[in-house]
Amino acid sequence: MYPMTSHTTENTLERITPIAKQIGITRIANITGLDHIGIPVANCIRPNAKHLSVSQGKGVNWELAKISAIMESIEAYHAENPQEADLFGTFNDLQLQHNIIHPRYFANQFFDCSLESVNLPWIWSTHLISNQSILIPHDVICLDSSKPLQHRWLFNVTSNGLAAGNTKEEAMLHALYEIIERNTLTNWKKLSSAEKTHSQIDLTSITSEINQALLNKFSLANIQVTIWDITSHLPIPAYYCMITDDHSYRNLGVFFGSGAHHSADIALMKALLEAAQSRLTFIAGTRDEIFPHYYAGKKNNSNSFILVNGNKKFISNNNWLMTVDELINDLIHHLMQNHFQQIILLDHTKKELNIPVVHIFIPGMS
């Protein structure tokens, strides 16, 4: 949860805490003390989850970390229990009567298959540019791993773009930021070493009070921080953060975080918080997808990094002071300018829970 929310922290907690039991959360754990950094991280445990049974949350205080973890669990619950498909049929047949997106936009590229002739389940969604209803493959919005889905192997099924919020608009904004963040990071990783070095931030140029406080926590814990400005052709500030320690008795290796937001300070805050969360996730070892080889690969991997301070100045900005609707429209405008013409929204919101959850897809964004 970040600034520009329509509810206070207290109101949000009051609203979502009773829902925890309804979606199967049996425990909300404060795992902050498992590390010595002191940045709040929460775990939500759902033993009967159909995908991942543990969700994480982070924040500058415990209340925000708790909200973040519960919201992530709410997102997962909705995607694990999606609406039923609206139609069944092949793309070739359905396109004759319905507005439908070609399934190749969601293909995982591992299989050479004529998707046009595959009989698939489809669900109605909304094209955010045309505001028209459009059919998308049902498989791409379902994260239920408890049962085999006949056609899941055809598609790239992820939680990227899945978000919850106090309002539908807040959820949409969080989803768009996440998609842009991950696409920006993918593009940055393709740069040359020289280009990456040029994008490294001079930590002394960071002046915002909240980020200075986070950096101070890392410093007091003897954790080295490296930050890169990964902002791409989309003029939305984005940052990539690496944290590492060189403790001879407890070298956990390196951990990363990234963030994107109209506000450069908030984008950086998100990256710093995510890096701290990823380290605590590793320490706690409660995530279903963390296997022994992951720990083996982490051992002493910080040796491959040369830690130096960057030269690029961090620049705060104040041109993001808009309403949530204005921020969404600004993101869509920039996406369209960069030739992303398919921005599709699936509304997961369940009436009985009344917490807005959306899944946004932007074909062509990695």
Count of DSSP helices? 9
The CATH topology of the largest domain is Double Stranded RNA Binding Domain
Q: Can you tell me the residue ranges where pLDDT is under 50 for at least 5 consecutive residues? A: none
Helicity level:
25-40%
Portion of residues in beta strands equals: 15-25%
| SSE string, helices as H and strands as E | HEEEHEHEEEHHHEEEHHHEE
Query: How many distinct folded domains?
Result: 2
Largest sheet, in brief, is: 6 strands, antiparallel
State the name of the first-level CATH class of the largest domain.
Alpha Beta
Give the overall form.
globular
Give the helices and strands, then pairings.
Layout: H1 9-22, E1 27-30, E2 41-45, E3 54-58, H2 62-80, E4 87-89, H3 91-94, E5 120-127, E6 133-137, E7 162-164, H4 168-189, H5 193-198, H6 209-220, E8 224-229, E9 238-244, E10 254-260, H7 264-284, H8 292-298, H9 324-337, E11 344-347, E12 357-361
Antiparallel strand pairs: 1-2, 2-3, 4-5, 5-6, 5-11, 7-12, 8-9, 9-10, 11-12
List keywords for this structure.
alpha+beta, 366 residues, Double Stranded RNA Binding Domain, 3-stranded antiparallel beta sheet, 6-stranded antiparallel beta sheet, 2 domains
Provide a brief overview of the structure.
With 366 residues, this protein is an alpha+beta fold. Strand 2 (41-45) and strand 3 (54-58) form a beta hairpin.
